[in-house]
Amino acid sequence: MGHSACPHDCPSTCALEVDLLPGNRIGRVRGDAANSYTAGVICAKVARYAERIGHPGRLLTPLVRDGAKGEGRWKEASFEAALDLIAEKFERAEAAHGAETVWLNYYAGTMGLVQRDGINRLRHAKGYSNQFDSFCTNLAWTGFTMGTGALRGPDPREMAKSDCVVIWGTNAVSTQVNVMTHAIRARKERGAKIAVIDIYDTPTMKQADIKILLRPGTDGAFACAVMHVLFREGLADRDYLNEFSDDPAGLESHLKERTPQWAEAICGVPVAEIEAFARLVGTTKRTFFRLGYGFTRQRNGAVNMHAALSLAVVTGCYRHEGGGAFHSNSDIFRLDKSLVEGRSGFDPRLRWLDQSRIGRALTGEAEALNGGPPVTAMLIQNTNPANVAPEQRKVVAGLRREDLFVAVHEQFMTDTAQLADVVLPATMFLEHDDIYRGGGHQHIVLGPRLVDPPEGPRSNHEVIEALGQRLGVADKPGFGMTPRAHIDWMLGKRGLGDFKSFRAEKWADLQPDFETAHFLKGFAHQDGRFRFRPDWTGTPAANKPPERMGPQGPVEQLPEFPDHVELIESADAEHPFRLATSPSRSFLNSSFAETPSSRAKEGRPVLMIHPEDAQALGIAEGERVKLGNQRGDLCMHARLDAGQRRGVVIHEGLWPNSAFEGGEGINTLTGADSCAPYGGAAFHDTRVWVRKA
Ligand SMILES: Nc1nc2c(c(=O)[nH]1)N[C@H]1C(S)=C(S)[C@@H](COP(=O)(O)OP(=O)(O)OC[C@H]3O[C@@H](n4cnc5c(=O)[nH]c(N)nc54)[C@H](O)[C@@H]3O)O[C@H]1N2
Ligand SMILES: Nc1nc2c(c(=O)[nH]1)N[C@H]1C(S)=C(S)[C@@H](COP(=O)(O)OP(=O)(O)OC[C@H]3O[C@@H](n4cnc5c(=O)[nH]c(N)nc54)[C@H](O)[C@@H]3O)O[C@H]1N2
Ligand code: SF4
Ligand SMILES: [Mo]
Predict the structure, then answer these.
(1) How far does CA 439 lie from the centroid of its chain?
(2) What are the domain boundaries of the chain?
C-alpha cells in the first residue's frame, strides 16, 4: 500500500491510501483513516482511480496535427521532436511579436505545487504574458477577505462540535464530501441541526434538517433580512460587535429597511422561514457557517459572500468552539513558491491575460488583449479551456485561428487537445512527485511517485524543464532541480522537514491555535476589526496586487454595507429563466467525464426544470429542450424537478462538448464579463430562454 494525496481541484485534498498491485498497477484507493480531516472518506470517483490511470483512451504518444485544426488527424512524434517543434514555434512567435505574444495557459487539473505552478518559472524567465487566475476563487476570496482581512478560519474539524452547521452555497455531498463527514458527526453525537442554503434541492440539501431555497444571486438579500431579525430581536452579540467590528451601529441602521418582507420579494424565501432561520442561528451560538464557492459564481458574488460572512459575525458565533464562518484556509500554509515559480523574474508590468476571457483574447478583442500583442503561441497545461471557460464559441473560434500555435499537455484527448497543433501526453499524480495544500482543511499532504508511468507520458515538470533548456533559460532560478529538491526547499524554508520526513509522516497539520483561528485576537485588518463597510477597491490582505489585474467591473455599484445588488443577469421577457451550471457528482470540472463508471452514473446532459414551468412550455419528462441566449444555444433532455423555484433551470456538468448534439458545451451560454470588484467568472448567473426542441 502507498500513501498519497488527491491532486484534483477540490477543497478536500484527501489523504489517500492506494493499493499497489503487481505489474505496476493500482487497485482500490481509500481515504486515509489516520488523517483527522479525511477521516477515511473519499468520493467514489477517486476511489475508482484505477479506471482513470489505466484508461485505454489515455494519451501515450506525442501527436502533431496532420490536417485542419480539430479534424482529428494526427501524426505520432517522438517527445524530443515535439518539444523541438514547440520551442521553434515559440521563438518564431516571439521574434515576430515580442515575448508577450506567448501565453502559458494553465490551471488546476493538478493542485500540486511543483507540477501545477512550475509553468510560471518558464513564463517569468522568458517574459511571456502574465496570467490572471479568475475562474474559481476570485469572487469568493475577495468577498471573504474584505470582511476578515485573511483567508482562514476556525478548524473545519470543529464542525463536529457544533450545534448547528450551515452549509451555504456548496453542494458538499458532491463537491467536497468530507464536509458532510464532520457535519453528520455533529448531528449524530450532539443532535446538531444541518441547514443548507442553495438554489435547488441538491444531494446536500436532501440531507438537511432546514432547507433554504433561494433564487440565484439573492444571498445578500437573505443575509440582510436575517441580520435585520437578529438586531430586531436582540439576538445580535452587541458586546462582541463593539469590540471586533468597524461599524455595528451603522450596520444596524442600514438594515432597518432590509426586512424579511423586503427579502422575500427578492430571494423567494418566505418571511416565516427567514425569521425561523434567524432565531436558530441567533440562539445557537455554536453555529458553524461553511461558506462555499458556488453562491459566489454570480455577478454580485463577492457582495453575497461578504453579506453571508457578516451574518455570522453578527451572531457572535466566532467566540465559541464549533462556531464561526469558514471558507478556505489558504492563508495558513505559507509555502514559499518563489523558487518553483522563478519569482525573481516576475514582472507585473508585463501584459496580463485573464483566463476567463480567453475567448475574447484569442479572438483579438483589444480590451482582453490588455494593451499587448495578439496571442500567437500557447502551451496549455492542466486546463481545458475549450470546455470550462465562458463564451465557448469565442474560445473555440480563437483556438481554431490559423495564425495561433497551440501545444496542449494532457492526459486525455480533451475538447482543448482536439484543437491543438501538438499534443503531449502527461503523467498522472501517482506517477510523479508533488506536494499539496488543503483549502478546506489545514494539512499539507505529500503525494510521492508510487508507480512508474507507462512509456510515453512525461510530467509537467519534465516538459517545463525541457522547454527551458530549448528556450535558453535553463540557468535561471528554479530550473535544473528535481521535484523532490523543490519539495525539500519549500518545506525546509517553512521549517517543516523535507520530502523524506513527509514520506514517513505523510502530512503536517498547520491549524492555527483556537484564538487565532477564531480571530479572537482581532481580525486581520490593521485595526483588528471586521469590516461591515468593505473598502471594495482597496487591498484585501490575501491575493494582493500585483497578483491580479486591479479593480474591474461595475465597482461603483458595490454597496457600502451588506446588501442585495442587482448586478446579476436578471431574467427578462426574452430570457425568462435563470440558468445555473452546477458541478455534477461524478465529474470533477471537466475531468472524469472519460471514466466509464462516472459516465454511466451521470447518464446524459440534462436540464432540470420545474414541472409547472415545463407544463407551461409543453415540455414532458425526458423530452428534448433547446435553451439559449445572445451567446448561443444548445439542446439537452428535460428532467422535471420541483427542487428549485420557478424560473430557475439547472444543468449539472461539466459534460464534454461532444456529449451535446451540436458539439458545443454548456459554457456556450455563460458570459465572460468581469465581475466587480476584481474580476472572476459568474458561471451560475446566466439568463436563457427555454423551448421544446
Ligand atoms: N464532483 C465534483 N466535485 C468538485 C467539482 C466538480 O465539478 N465536481 N469542482 C471542484 C471545484 S474546481 C470547486 S471550485 C469546488 C466548488 O464547489 P462548491 O463550493 O460546492 O461550488 P459549486 O459547486 O460551484 O456550487 C455549489 C452550489 O452552489 C449553488 N449555487 C449556485 N448559485 C447560487 C446562489 O446564487 N446562491 C446559493 N445559495 N447557491 C448557489 C449551486 O447550485 C451548487 O449546488 O468543487 C470541487 N469539487
Ligand atoms: N459552466 C461551468 N463552467 C465552469 C465551472 C462551473 O461550475 N460551471 N467551474 C469552474 C471552475 S470552479 C474551475 S476551477 C474550472 C476548472 O477548469 P479546469 O482546471 O480546466 O478543469 P479540470 O477538469 O479540473 O482540469 C483540466 C485538465 O487538467 C488535466 N490534468 C490533470 N492532471 C494533470 C497533470 O498532472 N498534467 C497535465 N498536463 N494535465 C493534467 C485533466 O486531464 C483535465 O483535462 O472550470 C470552471 N468552469
Ligand atoms: S476529489 Fe475531493 S473528495 Fe474526491 S478524493 Fe479528491 S479531494 Fe477527496
Ligand atoms: Mo474551481
Answers:
(1) 10
(2) 2-53, 63-133+337-509, 154-325, 577-692
In the chain, DSSP finds a helix count (H) and a strand count (E) of 25, 25
| Dihedral angle over CA of 58, 63, 67, 70, nearest 10 | 40
Topology of the domain covering 577-692: Barwin-like endoglucanases (2.40.40)
Residue 310 reports pLDDT greater than 50: yes
Closest ligand 2 atom number to CA of residue 414 = 44
Statement: residue 6 has pLDDT above 60 = yes
DSSP assignments along 137-162, one per residue: SHHHHHHHHHHHSSS--S-GGGGGG-
3-state helix, strand, coil in the chain (%, to 5): 35, 20, 45
Residue 495 cell numbers, joined: 521549517
Q: Give the chain's end-to-end CA distance (angstroms, integer).
A: 52
Confidence band for 546, pLDDT divided at 50, 70 and 90: very low
Superfamily of domain 154-325: Dimethylsulfoxide Reductase, domain 2 (3.40.228.10)
Measured CA to CA, the distance from residue 193 to residue 191 in angstroms comes to 7
CATH fold, domain 63-133+337-509, is Rossmann fold (3.40.50)
Q: State which CATH number among 3.30.1330, 2.60.40, 1.10.3470, 2.20.25 fits the domain covering 2-53.
A: 2.20.25
Pocket lining for ligand 1, CB < 6 angstroms: 9-10, 136, 169-171, 174-176, 197-200, 202, 214, 216-217, 219, 292-295, 297-298, 580, 582-585, 587-589, 684
